[in-house]
């Protein structure tokens, strides 16, 4: 694409050559090889907040205050200073560079949590088209909650979970949605998925997938709830029909079918079971063989299928959901990889199950290997989200996947491990070009586009040029400049990359609640 | 099996004889089962079965897949099995909780009947409801008075809850 690595030469080249059709953005992104966040300001004087992330358009930096009550939003700016001497590159940066406020301007601070609730600092979803942010607050978990009112056994309960929709421009609270005595997995936004204007929230406790629409006006509107019923008016239909049924009871309690009602299969389970049944039924044409086959493959496992619960959900497009099912134990525990699980593709418009796989299914893995971008859906509006590296769009990522695949001792174990990442968590990857694997190579154990806390070492993290192997493009070192005095303390680090600018924050924390060390990495 | 005390002796034999009978019916089932039903024990419990009925064409239940729980009493075949719909259905012989009340599952039960016969009876229920002794009189009245309306509602139920 470019003949030279020199930035000036590249600029000239860009002026005189037209890139191959459809590659202009790829070519523009190669300038990131020249412009890197190689300069670090260690231990910046900054407010004691927990920094969540930059929004995908780079307009906001979202943070929460330490007592988990307030949302504080900043606008990323750029350090500006003047120098009246000849050679200003050799000068030290002015003192104000050490201040957080020189890079970020506080826009506002709003209190989200009230009466016993705390902000869930892992939860934040951004609707780029409207610059709306979705936040969650909740009260404490009750672990041994009795399963009341149709709740399932073994899932903890939270007295109150509130989702807040905010206009990030000015912090105005537009709408909120409260869940009482329910459980939604808020950590890393696992229990919610935003696609365009559609929001899916999974109630683990009541086994419902709530589909909401975020209107341009800022209203959260219920579209449907999938679980007990499939269509939005099923419950209404049943109520209006059961008038006839309860008439003859005539004892004054009109809506008195509470216990009996739970014995029916839920709408979604009925669809799932009939899909599995039909698959086995159609496999065999001989009736004797069919009954044998169903006995072994279907009826024997019937109770296990009944006991499956919805763990996690993602949108594949506006109509299709990828739903992961598993046992109750696996849904709540953090380490769910060891539990068997199942994936279903569900069309919520036609209310049909389209496909069903076990987590060890080769077929699903091969689909994932070839078409992983179809799983990594993001809302249509966000352009740069289309350039995130995956093994389906990036040869280097594919090589890495093949390498892990070949190294794996057992293929089925490998498949299960890969499938554990499905369904993907919403907005869990940074669109920063520094994670573009066709531009840079880095150790994925230490840093990656996936938004997770990682164990931190005292060694700087190297970003090496992909096209010129062995050329170090820049280094990032979290924590204090001199390294930590005590090498034994475990340190956890998180990185927040600006999606466009050569700007990143690293936040290093030790386990003993000491103040965190925030470094700013930018291009000087 | 013979090690049990004197008091448990009779019940043990009755359970195992009913078990043998169910086992026998299971092997026969794969040969003589009606063409659009299937059934089998849930897990390794011989006394808890699941049956599946496919809604026959030409009825408002067409296209539906109905799952039923069949529970055998320990003194089977002297007492009838209990049949409960796990799939919602609009039918005059199925009460709002899903319990099936057919003649042969109540007063007309005979130890000579088998699970295949029960499946046959359940299947014919789709085409010929027992309207003389319904579990839900309202539905039976509608069936006798305005069959078109009844079929319309039953079709809607099948579409919504039995696919």
From TrEMBL, chain A:
Question: What Gene Ontology terms describe what this protein does at the molecular function level?
Answer: ubiquitin protein ligase binding; ubiquitin-like ligase-substrate adaptor activity
InterPro entries named among the record's database cross-references:
6-hairpin_glycosidase_sf, De-etiolated_protein_1_Det1
Report the record's Gene Ontology biological process terms. Answer: carbohydrate metabolic process; positive regulation of proteasomal ubiquitin-dependent protein catabolic process; protein ubiquitination
Gene Ontology CC terms, in alphabetical order: cullin-RING ubiquitin ligase complex; nucleus
- Where does this protein have coiled-coil stretches? none
Report what the protein is called. Light-mediated development protein DET1
Q: Which organism is it from?
A: Anisodus acutangulus
Q: Taxonomic lineage per UniProt?
A: Eukaryota, Viridiplantae, Streptophyta, Embryophyta, Tracheophyta
UniProtKB/TrEMBL annotation, chain B:
Segments forming a coiled coil: none
- Write down the InterPro entries for this protein, in alphabetical order: UBC, UBQ-conjugating_enzyme/RWD
Using the record's annotation, list all stretches that form the UBC core domain.
17-163
SMART domains xref list: UBCc
Would you say which domain of life the source belongs to?
Eukaryota
- Note the PROSITE patterns from the entry: UBC_2
Protein name (Swiss-Prot/TrEMBL): UBC core domain-containing protein
Organism of provenance: Anisodus acutangulus
């Amino acid at each position: 694409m470019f003949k030279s690595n020199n930035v000036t030469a590249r600029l000239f080249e860009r002026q005189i050559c037209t890139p191959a059709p459809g590659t202009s953005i790829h070519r523009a992104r190669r300038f990131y090889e020249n412009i890197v966040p190689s300069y670090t300001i260690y231990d910046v004087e900054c407010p004691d907040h927990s920094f969540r992330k930059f929004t995908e358009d780079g307009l906001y930096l979202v943070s929460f205050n330490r007592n988990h009550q307030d949302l504080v939003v900043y606008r990323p700016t750029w350090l500006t200073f003047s120098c009246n001497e000849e050679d200003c590159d050799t000068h030290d940066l002015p003192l104000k560079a050490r201040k957080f406020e020189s890079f970020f301007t506080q826009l506002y601070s709003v209190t989200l949590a009230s009466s016993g609730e705390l902000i869930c600092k892992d939860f934040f979803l951004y609707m780029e088209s409207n610059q709306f942010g979705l936040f969650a607050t909740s009260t404490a978990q009750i672990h041994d909650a009795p399963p009341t009112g149709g709740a399932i056994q073994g899932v903890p309960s939270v007295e109150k979970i509130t989702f807040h929709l905010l206009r990030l421009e000015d912090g105005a609270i537009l709408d909120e949605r409260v869940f009482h005595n329910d459980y939604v997995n808020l950590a890393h936004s696992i229990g919610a998925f935003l696609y365009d204007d559609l929001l899916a929230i999974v109630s683990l406790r009541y086994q419902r997938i709530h589909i909401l629409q975020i209107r341009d006006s800022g209203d959260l509107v219920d579209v449907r709830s999938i679980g007990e019923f499939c269509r939005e008016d099923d419950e209404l239909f049943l109520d209006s029909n059961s008038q006839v049924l309860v008439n003859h009871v005539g004892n004054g309690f009109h809506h008195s079918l509470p216990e009996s009602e739970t014995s029916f299969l839920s709408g979604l389970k009925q669809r799932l079971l009939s899909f599995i049944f039909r698959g086995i039924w159609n496999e065999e044409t001989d009736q004797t063989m069919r009954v044998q086959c169903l006995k072994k493959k279907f009826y024997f496992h019937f109770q296990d299928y009944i006991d499956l619960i919805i763990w996690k959900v993602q949108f594949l497009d506006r109509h299709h959901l990828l739903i992961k099912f598993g046992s109750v134990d696996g849904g709540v525990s953090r380490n769910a990889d060891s539990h068997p699980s199942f994936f279903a593709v569900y069309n919520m418009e036609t209310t049909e199950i389209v496909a069903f796989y076990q987590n060890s299914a080769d077929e699903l893995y091969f689909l994932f290997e070839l078409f992983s971008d179809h799983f990594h859906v993001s809302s249509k509006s966000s352009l740069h989200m289309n350039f995130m590296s995956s093994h389906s769009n990036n040869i280097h990522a594919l090589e890495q996947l093949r390498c892990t695949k070949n190294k794996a001792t057992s293929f089925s174990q490998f498949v299960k491990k890969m499938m554990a990442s499905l369904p993907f968590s919403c907005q869990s990857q940074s669109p920063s070009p520094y994670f573009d694997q066709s531009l840079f190579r880095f150790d994925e154990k230490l840093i990656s586009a996936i938004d997770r806390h990682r164990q931190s070492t005292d060694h700087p993290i190297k970003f090496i040029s992909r096209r010129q192997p062995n050329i170090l493009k820049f280094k990032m070192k979290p924590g204090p400049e001199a390294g930590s005095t005590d090498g034994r303390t475990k340190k956890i680090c998180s990185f927040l990359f600006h999606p466009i600018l050569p700007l990143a924050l690293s936040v290093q924390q030790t386990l003993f609640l000491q103040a965190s060390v925030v470094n700013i990495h930018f291009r000087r | 099996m013979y090690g049990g005390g004197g008091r448990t002796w009779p019940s043990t034999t009755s359970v195992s004889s009913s078990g043998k009978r169910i086992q026998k019916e299971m092997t026969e089932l794969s040969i003589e089962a009606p063409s659009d039903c299937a059934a089998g024990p849930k897990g390794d419990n011989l006394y808890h079965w699941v049956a599946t009925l496919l809604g026959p064409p030409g009825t408002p239940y067409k296209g539906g897949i109905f799952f039923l729980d069949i529970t055998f009493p320990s003194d089977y075949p002297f007492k009838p099995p209990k049949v409960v719909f796990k799939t919602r259905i609009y039918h005059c012989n199925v009460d709002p909780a899903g319990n099936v009340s057919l003649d042969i599952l109540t007063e007309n039960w005979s130890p000579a009947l088998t699970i295949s016969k029960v499946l046959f009876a359940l299947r014919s229920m789709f085409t010929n409801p027992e309207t003389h002794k319904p579990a839900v009189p309202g539905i039976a009245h509608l069936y006798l008075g305005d069959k078109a309306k009844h079929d319309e509602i039953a079709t809607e139920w099948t579409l919504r809850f039995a696919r």
